[in-house]
Amino acid sequence: MSPIELSPVFFLAVVVILLTCRLVVAVTTRLGQPPVVGEMIAGVLLGPSLFGLLAPGVSDAVFPAELKPVLYVAGQIGLVALMFHAGYEFRAHASRGLVGTAAAVSAAGATIPLLLGVGLAIVAHGHVPLFVDGVSMWVTASFVGVALAITAFPMLARIITERGLSGTRFGSLALASGATDDALAWILLAGVLSAAAGDTGHVLTTVGGTVLFVAVLLVVGRRLLAWIVDQAQLSDETRLLGTVAVLFCAAWFTDAIDLYAVFGAFCVGMTMPNSRAAENLVKTIQPVTQVVFVPVFFTYSGLNTRFDVFADSSVTLFAAAAVVLAVAGKFGGCWVAARLRGEPRSVAVRVGALMNARGLMQLIALNIGLAAGIVSQALFSTLVLVALVTTVMTSPVLEWLDRRDARAKESAPEAVPA
Known about the structure:
mainly alpha
């Protein structure tokens, strides 16, 4: 298919994606779910698990194989902008006077599901058809562990903001813990990808490139971003252009060293200056990419998700075990860590519920693993299911906790004046 033929196909596909996402989001928001949940579900519905199953001919016409690379690139634009925003939010919430507790919660919330995921993959090796030929079992097991350790920080921040929880103890603690957890998970993922390369020179290039990138960003990039943002004589369009140029340069370099574009975008967001002008720039970049390009990423993920793999009972059993261990490791681990740090039960359980959501961040990691050739289609679909279940359960759990506490408060005996 030539570029001239592909262009109208792309525009039609985007229209189908945006309308489907909007319709599904309208339904899921009525059920108390954040928009990202609806977009995740819409992406799966447009894939071979439903649209491709019910109307394979129409599905192939709307989403031909030649279109997949174009959707991938368009989705990457959305992810770069989204991770830029996540990095900016990380900078804002990482220091809220909760360092000790947030560190304990994020450490437990990353370490416990990581170990459980590695253990599950090791047990499944040789019994479940999830592993890619030629890829070390330890690489796949490590990837599964990292996937279970991820927290969806952008979605967590959105839930907290939409529910008016930003000023609460558990909201602030979850934001600080989730930001730290995500940063740690991306570092671990970079390590897994480097190990998967199996080439010392490749690993050295990635490690050396990472050190160079961080150094240049801290020494030059931070000052350049501050200059772009604070120069009063620059027009708003010029500030936007300069910021996007820095952002895309970072995405290009981290992609070139196989650290992947999302890492560079996240780091640029963290180094943005703390000012009203910077906040306005971030808000300017976010809306179009959030509305147009992020849904394209969800659909690209959906096109790679095949729920027919669960016809194999061993895959279904692995998926069920992965969901249980993901919830036990993240929800349980964060709850226990918060309690050990002296947090009240009501705070600890809500922190666990918020940290358990994996959402978009896990999908990003899965697509990176799929592109790197270390994740099979079956394993991809299994972990997409984990992302969906742990994300969908967050809002209902929080609402149930609110109702439970309200009933307990109503039934508590009133204090008798002395």
